[in-house]
Specification:
The protein has 323 residues and is α/β, with parallel strands linked by helices. It contains 10 helices and 14 strands. The protein has helices spanning 31-43, 59-68, 115-129, 146-162, 176-185, 208-215, 248-263, 268-277, 292-303, 308-316, and strands at residues 3-5, 11-13, 15-18, 48-50, 77-82, 84-88, 107-111, 136-140, 168-173, 190-194, 218-222, 240-241, 244-245, 282-288. The chain is globular and about 55 Å long.
Length: 323
């Protein structure tokens, strides 16, 4: 699998494995599915893995760490996130997590982008994974805490980078504008842009991506299927977009893109991955998967050959931005 590098020389495979499903996103992921999924990614050449304390209240970190500890530490890149500490939740063992993960709510998330909170988060994440270091640390969804995150928070991560504790720092968010603002404020390496640079949503194209290219900041694209809308060859009327029912206008646009893909002999999910990798600021596309079959399907989509005429047709129809 091809790799791309950050400005400081950290190599990421063009496809990364997102580990939210390892934390029982929406429903239980069995131990066998975890093992098969990570093994399938490794066998396909994936060497970038992304997790977070948020995913299953630490379950994703524990499971991913257990799988990766079977491989030499210098052969892969792993990222986790800070800003959401896991703290005791008395009585939570009798309830399920209320943020989308099928796990008992024995802990709860506590926002904390302070220097001490970030250092504590990293230490606890390392303990959960059983690893001795992370390669990448992102601030996780700091939208409502942006002032502290973009000053004290990112300064703490840069301090860890300067100490050699981590190789690359940045933030992961579902909006492009604050990511662009973070580039203006701080010396970041990588930003994870979720859902805002896809075949259907070009929010990042006008500001974030040109600025990232100018400042040598790498972009990791997540949510490339827009929470399911672009994950099938033909969009379903009951599909979700940004985890909500898809609006009719967006569904109609997605179907027009699917029409163009079919005319060129490729599928919508194949084009969804290939489109974002065309941009020179993008260093990796992180795709979630549950089990070996889903991982292999994503790899096959990544490997598909895209006809150049598809992009020119989509641009001429005003369906995608020219890159």
């Amino acid at each position: 699998m091809k790799t791309r590098s950050t400005q400081r020389g950290l190599e990421l495979t063009e496809i990364g494995l997102g580990a939210a499903q390892l934390g029982n996103l929406y429903r239980e992921t069995t131990d066998a599915e975890v093992e098969e999924g990570v093994a399938a990614a490794w066998d396909a050449g994936v060497r970038y893995f992304d997790t977070a304390p948020h995913y299953g209240l630490g379950l994703s970190e524990r499971r991913l760490g257990a799988q990766l500890r079977t491989h030499p530490r210098d052969e892969y890149v792993i990222s986790s996130k800070v800003g959401k500490l896991l703290v005791p939740n008395p009585g939570g063992e009798d309830r399920m997590d209320d943020q989308g993960f099928a796990v008992p709510a024995v802990t709860k998330r506590q926002w904390d982008f302070s220097r001490d909170g970030i250092f504590r988060s990293v230490e606890e994440s390392l303990a959960r994974t059983g690893l001795d270091h992370f390669d990448v640390l992102y601030m996780h969804d700091p939208d409502d805490h942006f002032e502290q995150a973009s000053t004290e928070g990112i300064s703490a991560l840069i301090e860890l980078r300067e100490q050699g504790v981590v190789k690359a720092v940045g933030a992961g968010m579902n909006h492009a504008a604050p990511l662009a603002e973070l580039i203006r404020r701080a010396d970041v390496d990588l930003l994870m842009c979720a859902g805002r640079f896809t075949l259907i949503d070009d929010e990042a194209v006008s500001d974030l991506l040109p600025l990232a290219l100018e400042r040598n900041v790498g972009i990791v694209v997540a949510g490339v299927y827009n929470s399911g809308l672009l994950g099938r060859n033909r969009p379903s009327p009951d599909a979700t977009f940004d985890y909500e029912p898809v609006p009719p206008a967006i569904l109609e646009r997605a179907n027009r893109v699917a029409d163009a893909c079919e005319a060129h002999g490729v599928t919508l999910p194949e084009a969804a991955i290939a489109y974002v990798l065309r941009h020179p600021a993008v260093v990796s596309v992180v795709v979630g998967a549950r089990g070996g079959d889903q991982v292999r399907s994503n790899i096959e989509r990544y490997a598909a050959t895209m006809p150049e005429g598809l992009w020119s047709d989509l641009e001429a129809a005003g369906l995608v931005a020219a890159l």
